[in-house]
Amino acid sequence: MDSGLAPSGRPGMTEPLEPGPVPRFHSPMFRTFRGGQSGGWRVTSIAPVTGEPLPFVPALSVTDSEAVSLPLVPSRNAWRLVGVASSLRYTERAEKEQLMAVQAGLGRVEATSAALIPIRKSQAWWDLTQEERRKIFEDKSHHIASSMRFLPAIARQLYHCRDLGEPFDFLTWFEFAPAHASRFEELVGMLRRTEEWSYVEREVDVRVVKEVLSA
Ligand code: HEM
Fold first, then answer.
1. What HEC string does the chain produce?
2. Which of 3, 48, 103, 114 is the most buried (most CB within 10 A)?
């Protein structure tokens, strides 16, 4: 049957109803952290740092997908948090180059310990301008400069979720070898004492270890 559409390949004519690839929809855009009964990571602790806690669950799964249905409705024994690895907001060129030269990627075999730290900042933070936030984040709190020495031992990835209407603004994820566990404590302890952290109104610290599959 004639579709009414012009044959494809003719200049200036519409292609049949096949959408072209939309970059952000054709590669997994969303990372979902699901706390529940099963997953590749075993939960060792879930500690509320500031504000409302998350319920304890025995396992954490981490998956990527092209789409998610929002809002994610929490249940009593499971939770799902979703975020997007986004563009950099505060990092300047020299810092970016320094980070790229030393940082390690996720998924190293020896990095069998990890932390998921979801964070929400206060309205007072979001009421500041980008420039004012950068001042607090780096000029006063030295978030990047002081954290640099923990690389490459600690591998990290930041996910944004404020604009998804999620209960947190950020999902922060860190992977490290068990031998570097105390360095990670030093890092989080240091950041939590900064001026930047006075704007954190909800923070939960989820610690996990890689589930080893027995034959
Ligand atoms: C391994 C050492 C770390 C390094 C090198 C590091 C580096 C960075 C960098 C470069 C940014 C800015 C991204 C941008 O330009 O938008 C950032 C943002 C952020 N980091 Fe870290 N970080 C580290 C550890 C941590 C830890 C341990 C936490 C949580 C306990 C954390 C929480 C955050 C949060 C919440 C943001 C977003 C801030 C905002 O946009 O308001 N970071 N980090």
1. CCCCCCCCCCCCCCCCCCCCCCHHHCCCCEEEEEEECCCCEEEEEEEEEECCCCCCCCEEEEEEECCCCCCCCCECCEEEEEEECCCCCCCCHHHHHHHHHHCCCCCCCCCCEEEEEEEEECHHHHHCCHHHHHHHHHHHCCHHHHHHHHCCCCEEEEEECHHHCCCCCEEEEEEECHHHHHHHHHHHHHHHCCCHHHHEEEEEEEEEEECCCCC
2. 114
